[in-house]
Amino acid sequence: MHNYLHIENAKMVFDTKKGKFTALTDINLTVKQGEFIALIGHSGCGKSTLLNLVAGLTSPTDGILLLSEREISGPGPERAVVFQNHSLLPWLTCFGNVYLAVERVFGAREAKAKLKERTQAALELVGLAHAMHKHPGEISGGMKQRVGIARALAMEPKVLLLDEPFGALDALTRAGLQDELMRIVQETHATTLMVTHDVDEAVLLSDRIVMMTNGPAATIGEVLDVDLPRPRDRLKLAENAHYHHLRGQVLEFLYQKHMKKAA
Amino acid sequence: MSAVTFNEGSLKDIMNKPDTVPASAAPVETQAKPRPTPYFETERGLALLESFGNFFRATLPPVIGIALFILLWQIVSASGGDSGLPGPAKTWEAAKALFADPFYDNGPNDKGIGWNILHSLYRVGAGFGLAALVGIPLGFMIGRFAFLSGMMAPIISLLRPVSPLAWLPIGLYVFKETEPASLWVIFISSIWPIILNTAAGVSRVPQDYLNVARVLNLSEWKIFTRILFPSVLPHLMTGIRLSMGVAWLVIVAAEMLTGGTGLGFWVWDEWNNLNVEHILIAIFVVGIIGLLLEQGLMLIAKRFNYE
Question: Long-range contact list for B126-129, CB < 8 A, 24+ apart?
């Protein structure tokens, strides 16, 4: 495992109506190939901004982002994003949504039948083969988010970027999708960056938790190694003392060291 | 309401199951009943009663409204004496005679009502079609390029409020003939809603969808066909509906001035003949066709509404 994703002195300043707003500053982070990183922090701390920088949807005001030693200069399919609100195109079926991505990435060198096969396989991976020909409007929120994940995975990205992917879901659905994501990442060895504000989710899923200080001018406060053995089982972890210790550390960071002041 | 029950299956099993929609009613357990339930107390009976109720709630107000309207009409026409407006019965008789032979042709100024309707529809279709042909691409460009939008904004704001008929002399002067002049009036008055709604639709394409396009690095053509166009379509349909409404409003007035054929000409012609029944019939025909056009376009628009 070598250093894969490299963020050096990244700084993000937005021009707003009230003048310049420094969202992020002094961000230094190195991610190894196949690693699962959770970005956690209070809302408004710029975790999504950091994710967007890696996605290339925004460019840093200052600093460098490298992916396998090449500078990230814009968005691209090798960095697939699972958006917070799924962002499926409502006029395409689930199959169509995933196929659009597959066609873009593999269309130039593979036959149509193979592209369809890939699309189908991605939907099967997230357990949605039966809903393939439904439109996003006809399925539940959890299913939509799974299509979003299937779309990202089908692109066989170098890096998988998840922006609070389960934030809008109920607890039961979220737990199921977390298990599923854990299994998929284990199978595909995808390098993953996930924005979350759910402490349990962060500890359960990640290899390292990057904890961010509050904005403005947010930066990385602490990085916590989650050295729990894999595969992880949420029910067994509930009785695991080390799990609770790690969880406690994240909570302590969020609620003691960096308590968000009431607005 | 039916309760969702979980058996002992693990969480994962539940998640992997297809998300099923619970059936509207749980199967009724077969138990020995002391007496047969009367039909209107059973679920089906109640549903039947309710659907009757809904039917009356939906149809009764419009029926009463139309009845009152006809009554009012009758009162107004009766109070006018012999020189008053023709009443509903007299107009109905005239309409029956008129629609008995809608497609006769006795020379240039005496054609059946069917021909007049078709002529008006043709003009609206042609003028409106041209407006769509020019307006849709223009709307897309204005929505996509801020510079073009800035360029066109003052022109559109200046020309849009102009009364459609003010364009008629310009059409007559430029084309020297009435037929293209009336098409021109329809064109120029129905193009604005198309341009403005298309442009608004383009500028309101959700950023989420555009981010998807950016992450996937889609080609301009794919962005247009897969994201921009489908996303704008509902707005575009609104524009088309408004345009069609304007075009149908304008055609009657335009035909009154240009003459020859069409519903507008017919209204004016019957005014000159002092055939007031026919004028009333024309008003109904214009209204009903406008309504049908609107409803038809609504149906098409529904087809493209994805939300």
Answer: B126/B183, B126/B186, B127/B182, B127/B183, B127/B184, B127/B185, B127/B186, B127/B187, B127/B190, B127/B247, B128/B186, B128/B187, B128/B190, B128/B243, B128/B244, B128/B247
Out of 1.10.10.60, 3.40.1280.10, 3.40.50.261, 3.40.50.300, the CATH code matching A3-78+158-257 is 3.40.50.300
Q: So what's the ipTM on this one? A: 0.83
For the stretch B142-175, pLDDT in tens is: 998 889 999 999 999 999 999 888 999 999 999 9
| CA distance to partner chain B, nearest, from residue A106 (Å) | 11
Per-residue pLDDT band for B307 (boundaries 50, 70, 90) equals: low
Q: Has residue B14 been placed in a domain?
A: no
The rounded average pLDDT for each run of 10 residues, N- to C-terminus, in chain A (263 residues) is 81 88 90 92 86 91 88 89 88 93 90 93 88 91 89 89 86 86 85 91 93 86 89 88 92 81 50
Q: Is B80 part of any domain?
A: yes
Q: Which among B215, B223, B227, B229 is the top mutation candidate for probing chain A, defined by the most A β-carbons within 10 Å of its own β-carbon?
A: B215
Task: Indicate whether B73 and B161 sit together in one domain.
Answer: no
For chain A, list residues whose CB is within 8 angstroms of any CB belonging to chain B.
55, 57, 74-77, 79-81, 83, 85, 87, 89-92, 100-101, 104-105, 127, 130-131, 135, 137, 139-140, 142-143, 155, 172-173, 175-177, 179-180
Q: How many A×B Cβ pairs under 8 Å? A: 77
Distance from CA of B147 to the nearest CA of A (A): 22
Helix, strand or coil, per DSSP, at residue A25: strand
In this structure, is residue B26 part of a structural domain?
no
Chain B residues 94-133 with a CB less than 8 Å from chain A = none
